Amino acid sequence: xxxxxxxxxxxxxxxxxxxxxxxxxxxxxxxxxxxxxxxxxxxxxxxxxxxxxxxxxxxxxxxxxxxxxxxxxxxxxxxxxxxxxxxxxxxxxxxxxxxxxxxxxxxxxxxxxxxxxxxxxxxxxxxxxxxxxxxxxxxxxxxxxxxxxxxxxxxxxxxxxxxxxxxxxxxxxxxxxxxxxxxxxxxxxxxxxxxxxxxxxxxxxxxxxxxxxxxxxxxxxxxxxxxxxxxxxxxxxxxxxxxxxxxxxxxxxxxxxxxxxxxxxxxxxxxxxxxxxxxxxxxxxxxxxxxxxxxxxxxx
Length: 300
Fold this sequence. Notes:
Blueprint lengths: L13 H22 L2 H18 L3 H25 L1 H6 L14 H20 L3 H19 L9 H15 L10 H19 L3 H6 L5 H5 L1 H21 L7 H16 L12 H20 L5
Helix pairs in contact: 2-3, 2-7, 2-13, 3-5, 3-6, 5-6, 6-7, 7-8, 8-11, 8-13, 11-12, 11-13, 12-13
């Protein structure tokens, strides 16, 4: 008898399941990444890591700084979107992956907790004092997400978190020196300016969902004024704060950053909800760090 081998039948759905899984996971990964507020997370991490390199941290130390900063920033970004999901949904924020269903709330919550847990040992690996300073800043950012954003003190977590970033750098150096007052004050002012430019596009939606931080209480026009003043003041502190007269390059830097500070806060009538002012603020922060390192105050 002639026996012919026949392979067992394959389910028609099986071949489609494998190739379809990878694109779906890719979409979820992209949505999760976007939920972390990647622009400020990456910008802050890169700028302060550059500051650590310039201050004398070696390659391994600079990597520790970068990883601590990045995990802290990611935890803050993910927690912000997870905590605000109801308000973002009510405001029809279709730019938020959680609102359009691209990623699940549980996934974002788990990611925020994992990032926060990782941030603790990575921060403390830079030294107890430096790590403590960074973790206080991360805690301040979480306090904003958890409720301070709805109060008149909404600016305070930004001032604390940004003001402590120079301390995170210097306290990890030999001798654990506390930073000079100039970069701390400038960092706090820059944080306040970042808060006001970040909130500016969402003021109407925030008021509709009962978020009444200081910028929402002041309104758009006064919020732009305060933001411009804080950003300009940060640059002025870096140039005028150190002893001795500023040189020509420092004055030039102050003029340029001053023009940018005012420009990022001008009303955009064609796109009042644009994120451009906040993104420009991150660029201005980079210029301030360059001003600090090249022509302004030393960290220590």
